[in-house]
Amino acid sequence: MRYKDIKKINIGMMGFGYIAHGVFELISEQKEYIRKKIGKDLEIIRIAEKDPESLKTIPHNILKKMSVSSDAEDVYKDLEVDVVVELIGGVEPTYGFVSEALKAGKYVVTANKDLMANRGGDLYRIAEDNNVDILFEASVLGGIPIIGPLKSTLASDRIFKIVGIVNGTTNYILTRMEREGLSFENALSMAQKLGYAEKANPASDIEGYDAACKLAILSSIAFNSRVVVDDVYKEGITRVTADDIEFARDMGYCIKLLAIGTEDDGKISVSVYPSLIPSNHIMSSIDDVFNAVYVYGSYIDRIMSYGRGAGDKATASSVVGDIINIARNFNRESKGIIYGCSCFEKKEICPIEESRSKYYMVMDVEDKPGVLASIAKVFGDYNVSINSMIQKQTDADGRAMLIFITHEAANRDLFSSVEKIKKLDMVNNIRSIIRVEDFD
Amino acid sequence: MRYKDIKKINIGMMGFGYIAHGVFELISEQKEYIRKKIGKDLEIIRIAEKDPESLKTIPHNILKKMSVSSDAEDVYKDLEVDVVVELIGGVEPTYGFVSEALKAGKYVVTANKDLMANRGGDLYRIAEDNNVDILFEASVLGGIPIIGPLKSTLASDRIFKIVGIVNGTTNYILTRMEREGLSFENALSMAQKLGYAEKANPASDIEGYDAACKLAILSSIAFNSRVVVDDVYKEGITRVTADDIEFARDMGYCIKLLAIGTEDDGKISVSVYPSLIPSNHIMSSIDDVFNAVYVYGSYIDRIMSYGRGAGDKATASSVVGDIINIARNFNRESKGIIYGCSCFEKKEICPIEESRSKYYMVMDVEDKPGVLASIAKVFGDYNVSINSMIQKQTDADGRAMLIFITHEAANRDLFSSVEKIKKLDMVNNIRSIIRVEDFD
After folding, report:
1. CATH number, domain with residue A179
2. In the prediction, which pLDDT does B211 show?
3. What distance in Å separates the CA atoms of residue A333 and residue A325, rounded to the nearest whole number?
4. How many A-B residue pairs are in contact by the CB < 8 A criterion?
5. CA neighbours closer than 13 Å in the CB half-sphere of residue B420
6. Which CATH number goes with the domain that contains A364?
7. Number of structural domains, chain B?
8. Range A210-215 average pLDDT
9. Residue B3 has pLDDT above 70, yes or no
10. Is B336 within 8 Å of A305 when comparing Cβ atoms?
11. How far is B263 from chain A (nearest CA, A)?
């Protein structure tokens, strides 16, 4: 419902870094356009930022009309502020600021995946108690609308699976390994040089934490039950080798870091791991820093959204999109919930041991009669059946390499069989174990 | 804003065919789930349908609780009905029913692209005058959320280009021609056999009318200026040959029916035509009855949405998604606009003659010295420059075939050069002229 009487929405920003600057630019550039669209002006009236350098990008004549301080508290204590935009990042002390803002009756827009994936449930409870809402489209997949659609149009359907390439850094690294045959280490330093991976601490991306946050947020909405980042099983891409990429290609696959959430009979499985995917599937053409997410539902069958998952401009567009959603519904006299929390059910999280997957495995073995029979017997004993096998002669010393792809097997069985196979005399080494997602 | 006091939203359906049945099923199956999600029940209390056979799928105990008649008027005259779902189709007499429903203060949800692409502006005026809204997510791309995102999250950005594969029938036909080497006629009858193309009158799909309706709707929202279906330049796929598909493939392209809308400096271009697109671009992997649409904006860069563009279940999910959007905001005492009309600007529609494209052309010529020089001269005279050319020897009688791909050229220049080339003695026939979209 548009409240035509309210002509201006006052925005207070907590944190003024890279993305905040994009938000400022977008709101300034599109001021008139947004006014025509929603019948209201958006105006940043207050900023809290510790580093005065960050504010230098704001023209002086505009800055002098704003209230500026270094204290986040000043933003939510400002009675004139309608919407608080949180772009500080991290869980603490940000959680405190955001919860206080909600308690003060402010709507909150955030791009903070870390916060939402850890404390989203708590924040929703505070928002509901105070009859306001917290929106976070920008926290997942940058400029790609996915939270809005899941909370509105797709709210009619039962979503049972989500599969995404949700981290740009690892996708960039895997694309370089795929295209230029680079090792993981070389591709990582290339990503660091270009600013796609953090120099000091790339772990959050390459070890899957960033993707796990995004999956926790998406799964909470899709499956209507709270999933936090610690619920997500994580395996990064640090152990994927140039050989794996090459062998996978020979077998018609490429390797991507997937975030997969499923709901089956009231149980939720959430995992992030590198996976072989068929080279002819659309997901294999999601390259470089692009992201994509597949959503499967009983009525929609499947939909996929694709775009830039990061960057100041793309992320700013989602932040301002959320502000527009709030502005459209804004009435100072009677606030209210826009979408609200979707987690009205309480579903069990399945441990990874209970999951089922197909697996790709590479083993160094002695090239002797009977070796395959011995390995196959162990697999058989643990209900792991082999879909395809390729033998590669590695040297003249009687050693060979075996590459397997299995049918779907229980995680527990697979790793039990692997422990047994490792102990076989003729098996020297198990180099790689990577899951396979055939999208079937 | 959720109005918690209202516990039930009463739905009246005009028309009860294929998609309406999907809506009925979805609402019945997910009754409890939707109640938990939005705190309200959705209930179909009235149906208007001329063919009593159509109602046989509704269980008797449910049907007897509904009011049923054959007159659409009864639906909007029913004071108990909150939301009217229009699934009759066509522009007339449906326009009359829908406008009366809005005048009666009902929210309207429709899947009718024909109606929205012809009379959308008029309906919005009536809706605004009566402080209600009309939602039509299902009218474009079935189950893929695109109208909602354009009207909410993406509303912050300036959208300057839309490119879509928006018609499942033609995409199915082109996929069969590509994969099995079928002629257009054979692929069409295959599509007809499978129910993907209408038997009596496939023209609406294969000649581009259906795609043009969808493009008119999307462009109106994206460019904030009313575009009607008659504004759209249309070329169908009836003249695409098996040879074209093969030659395109040899040059690294496939052929898709594209709907393209652009806005540049206040001018809108809207066209539907078959086009060569690079085989390694994601759009080339949109096969069979699947649809996809790319949206380009100054902040988002580009996003793409993909999924099932038709079918009762996918379309029903969008209809019910719209009902949920209305239900969340519903207050009988004070109605209001949810998104409202986006067309607050009035932009000029560019005639196709002023457009610029790359072109693929196939000519039958005499295989004599000087023939290429003569053709190239004419192209040059009209500012058409050639990007690549392949000569194919067609027979021993001294005839050859030339395949050209041009650089970007003005439509007017290209067709003027073609008229001139046709008159050259050595040119026997110009078989094909198809645009090329390189997505660069």
Report:
1. 3.30.360.10
2. 98
3. 17
4. 201
5. 16
6. 3.30.70.260
7. 3
8. 98
9. no
10. no
11. 15
A340 found inside a domain: no
Same domain membership, residue B290 and residue B153: yes
Between CA A281 and CA A288, with CA A282 as vertex, the angle to 5 degrees is: 115
Most A-contacting residue of B19, B299, B333, B334 (CB-CB within 10 A), to test interface: B299
- Give, in order, the Cα–Cα distances in Å from A265 to each of A347, B28, B133: 9, 20, 38
Residue B227 and residue B118 share a domain: no
Q: Tell me the pLDDT tens digit for each residue of A244-280.
A: 999 999 999 999 999 999 999 999 999 999 999 999 9
Q: Is residue B285 part of a domain?
A: yes
Average pLDDT over residues B95-110: 98
Among residues B40, B106, B113, B214, which one is catalytic? B214
Model confidence pTM above 0.90: yes
CATH number of the domain encompassing residue A71: 3.40.50.720
- Provide the H-helix boundaries in B240-360: 242-250, 312-328
Computed from CA positions of residues A95, A101, A102, A106, in that sequence, does the dihedral angle turn out positive or negative?
negative
Q: CB-CB: which of B301, B311, B322 is closest to A314?
A: B301
Instruction: From A277, A293, A328, give the residue that closes a domain.
Output: A328
Quick check: is B151 catalytic?
Answer: no
The answer to whether the Cβ–Cβ distance between B305 and A304 falls below 8 Å is yes
What digits encode the pLDDT tens for the residues A349-390?
Answer: 999 999 999 999 999 999 888 999 999 999 999 999 999 999
A293 and A158 share a domain? yes
* A24 in a structural domain: yes
Report in angstroms the alpha-carbon separations of A154 from A267, A366, B323.
Answer: 20, 54, 11
Please give the C-alpha separations between residue B204 and each of A190, B68, B228, B242, B341, in angstroms, as whole numbers: 51, 32, 16, 22, 27
Contact A1 B337 (CB under 8 A): yes
Same structural domain, A155 and A138: no
Whether residues B1 and A34 touch (CB distance < 8 A) is answered with: no
Residue B368: pLDDT band with limits 50, 70, 90: confident
Instruction: State the DSSP H helix or E strand holding residue B105, giving kind and residue range, or none if neither.
Output: none
Cα–Cα distance, A120 to A104 (Å, whole number): 18
DSSP state of B397: T
Instruction: Show the domain range for A232.
Output: 147-308
Both B273 and B152 in one domain: the answer is yes
A2: pLDDT strictly greater than 90 = no
| Residues A116 and A43 reside in one and the same domain | yes
Instruction: Give the nearest chain B residue to A292 (CA atoms).
Output: B304
pLDDT at A170 over 60: yes
Q: How far is CA B223 from CA A43, A308, B116, B161, B347, in A?
A: 24, 21, 16, 9, 9
Nearest of A249, A3, A283, A232 to residue A118 by alpha carbon: A232
Looking at the structure, tell me whether residues B85 and B176 fall in a common domain: no
CB contact under 8 A, A340 and B2: yes
Instruction: Give the burial string for B133-169 (b: 16+ CB within 10 Å, else e).
Output: bbbbbbbbbbbbbbbbbbbbbbbbbbbbbbbbbbbbb
Task: Give the pLDDT confidence score for residue A48 in this predicted structure.
Answer: 98
Q: Are residues B167 and B281 in the same domain?
A: yes
Q: What is the complex's ipTM, to 2 decimals?
A: 0.94
Q: Identify whether B417 is part of a domain.
A: yes
Q: Identify the closest residue of chain B to A131 by CA–CA distance.
A: B1
- Among residues A272, A293, A328, the one where a domain terminates is A328
